[in-house]
Amino acid sequence: MKRGENKLKIREGSNHEMTKNSMGTYLIEMNNQTPYPITELTIEDTDLDPQLFFYSIKALYGPSEKVKFFAVDKDGNETEIAPEEVVDKAAVQQNKDTAAKVQSGEITKEQAPQTQQTIKKIIIRLKDGKQIEPNEAFTFRMHVSTGVLYDNASLLNKDFPNTAKFTGKLLTTEGKEIPFNSEHIGKIQAEELAIKIGLAKTTTSNDTGAVDEVVEYNISADFFSLPSVVEFENPRFIDLLPEGIKFEELKNSNIPVDVEVIENYNDSNRQAVIFKLKEKVEPTKQAYPNYVQGAYHGRSNSFVSRYIQEE
C-alpha cells in the first residue's frame, strides 16, 4: 500500500533550505500474506505533483538488503541510487540558484521560476536471486521537497497524491509462477511553518532570599523552529526585575552579549536588564540546557545572570 505520512512544512523564502524534518513523506508498505515467496518485484513510484520533487528514499523496515533503488529521468534513463541519497540533485541546485538570485536582487520573488522535476519516477526492484518470503514485510519512506519557493498560497489547501504501482510474481510449491499487480495512492498536504522562539526564565538558586543575599536567574532562548532565512535586527532580551532586585553581574553566557542596565524602566520603579546579542543567531540551534549553574549541554542560546537583593 501507499500512504502519506508527514505534511510538507513550508515558509516563504526558506523552502530552498528544507531539512528532512520539514519535508513531506510518503510510506510504501508491503506484506507478503501468501503462502508463496515473491521471486520478482518492481515498485514504481510515479505521478508526483509537479510542484514537488523526489528528494530521497530509504528502507524504514524490512529486508533492505534484498532491493535496489533507481531514479528515472524524463527520458526514461535509469540510475541506481543509494538509500537516502539525494535523488533529484538538479532540482535541489535550481532551488538554491533561484533563491540566491532573489536574495541578491537579480530577480524579484514574483519573477522566481518554479523548479522543475528532472526525476520522474523512483523504482524499487528486488535483486536477482532474492525473494520475499511468506509473512515477510517491508516499509520504505520517501522524502519529497517543493520547487515552489515564494508562492506558498498555491501549495496550501490541496492534496498531493502520489501513486505506487506494484508488479511481480509468486512461485508456488509446484514451480508455477503467479503474476500480480496492484496500484495504491497516498496523499499529503502542506502547512506553513510557524516562526517560533522559545523563551524561559528560571530561578536557579535562592528563590526566597533575604536582604543582601544573592539570587541567580537563568534565561534561555530556543531558535530551533526559525526558518534559516530569518534575520534579526538588533536582537536583544529585556529582563524586567522585581522591585528591589538589582543587577550585579553576568556570570556566563554561551553566546557573546552586551549588557545594558536601565533604572526605573518606563517609570516602573524597577530595573531592566537588556542582553544584546552580538552575533547572528543560528535558527537551527536547539535549547537543551540542564540549568546547572554555568554548565549547558546541547546547543541552546542561554545565559545565566546574577542579581543581588537590596533594601
| C-alpha Rg (nearest Å) | 27 Å
The parts where pLDDT drops under 50 for at least 5 residues are: 284-303
Distance between the termini: 71 Å
Helix-residue proportion: under 10%
What is the residue-mean pLDDT, rounded to a whole number?
A: 83
- Number-wise, the strands total 19
Element order: H for helix, E for strand: EEEEEEEHEEEEEEEEEEEE
Which class do the helix and strand fractions yield? Answer: mainly beta
Placed side by side, the strands forming the largest sheet appear as 7-6-8-4-10-11
Q: What's the short version?
A:
It is built from one helix and 19 strands. Helices cover 5% and strands 46% of the residues.
Furnish the topology, listing elements before pairings:
Layout: E1 2-6, E2 8-10, E3 24-31, E4 38-46, E5 52-61, E6 67-73, E7 78-81, H1 89-104, E8 119-126, E9 137-146, E10 160-171, E11 177-188, E12 190-192, E13 198-205, E14 214-222, E15 236-240, E16 245-253, E17 257-262, E18 272-277, E19 301-309
